[in-house]
């Protein structure tokens, strides 16, 4: 089916009724997602060592740290891909620690893994259809929401009928994020979306994520690209050796070079 069936709105916007449904009772910093004392073992390996993490509703929380610090392991654990051996994972106040991944996703959490996980032999359209659980045919997709996604990621409209495996790396990443957004989600969890992408593509992705941020979508974002972190983050948590060793406002980390050096071993300014 051709993408010409849908025309992008003027301007592109989140369809009405798709704002996050969760309204915390104690202000905008009430956690939508909360991990308390989370430990994870994979075989004989103790990967997470008591992770405490809060993701406030309506904000972008950056999860930073050196390679091997436990960031991806944290995402896999909160999504139920790995089971926490101790501690709790709560979403909107509900304990989801032992829930299966499909049950967690059904609660409104979308996960974009580092590997992107797209189906290369399927078209862009078919990849989006698979992610839209309420649609059985392309004609069932929400046309208004699809137009909004085309506004964020125009390449998806251009390559609507093309095999996803033939897209560029940046286009594949855009498709992976669009799949997570094809239906309303309360929390978007993204693992290193800019990894391996050219600077111009990263700039386009920052612009799209900034527009998404303007919709008050709650995002937990793992990144190694500090330009992305500084431009998008509201809050930040830094991991080391399977633990959260710092959390606070992103602005505080940006303005404190000594803290950057102590926590990350580098200067954010040098990576702009």
UniProtKB/TrEMBL annotation:
Signal peptide: none annotated. Gene3D superfamilies: P-loop containing nucleotide triphosphate hydrolases (3.40.50.300). Keywords: Amino-acid transport, ATP-binding, Cell membrane, Membrane, Nucleotide-binding, Transport. One of its GO terms (biological process) is L-amino acid transport. InterPro entries: AAA+_ATPase (IPR003593), ABC_transporter-like_ATP-bd (IPR003439), ABC_transporter-like_CS (IPR017871), BCAA_Transport_ATP-bd_LivF (IPR052156), P-loop_NTPase (IPR027417). One of its GO terms (molecular function) is ATP binding. Pfam families: ABC_tran (PF00005). Residues 1-31 are annotated as: Disordered. Residues 33-266 form the ABC transporter domain. Belongs to the ABC transporter superfamily. This is ABC transporter ATP-binding protein.
């Amino acid at each position: 089916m051709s993408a010409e069936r849908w025309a992008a709105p003027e301007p592109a916007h989140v369809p009405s009724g798709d704002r996050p449904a969760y309204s915390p009772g104690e202000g905008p910093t009430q956690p939508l997602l909360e991990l308390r004392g989370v430990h994870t073992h994979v075989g004989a390996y103790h990967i997470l060592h008591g992770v405490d993490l809060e993701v406030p509703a309506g904000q972008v929380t950056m999860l930073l740290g050196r390679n091997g610090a436990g960031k991806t392991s944290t995402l896999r654990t909160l999504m139920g891909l790995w089971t926490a051996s101790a501690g709790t994972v709560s979403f909107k106040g509900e304990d989801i620690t032992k829930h299966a991944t499909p049950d967690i996703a059904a609660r409104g959490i979308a996960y974009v893994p580092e590997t992107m996980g797209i189906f290369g032999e399927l078209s862009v359209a078919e990849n989006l259809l698979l992610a839209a659980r309420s649609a059985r045919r392309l004609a069932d997709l929400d046309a208004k929401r699809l137009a909004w996604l085309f506004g964020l990621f125009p390449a998806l409209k251009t390559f609507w009928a093309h095999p996803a495996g033939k897209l560029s790396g940046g286009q594949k990443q855009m498709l992976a994020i669009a799949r997570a957004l094809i239906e309303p989600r309360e929390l978007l969890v993204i693992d290193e979306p800019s990894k391996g992408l050219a600077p111009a593509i990263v700039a386009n992705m920052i612009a799209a994520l900034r527009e998404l941020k303007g919709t008050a979508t709650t995002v937990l974002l793992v990144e190694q690209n500090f330009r992305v972190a500084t431009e998008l983050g509201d809050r930040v948590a830094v991991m080391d050796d399977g633990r959260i060793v710092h959390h606070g406002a992103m602005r505080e980390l940006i303005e404190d070079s000594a803290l950057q050096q102590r926590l990350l071993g580098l200067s954010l300014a040098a990576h702009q």
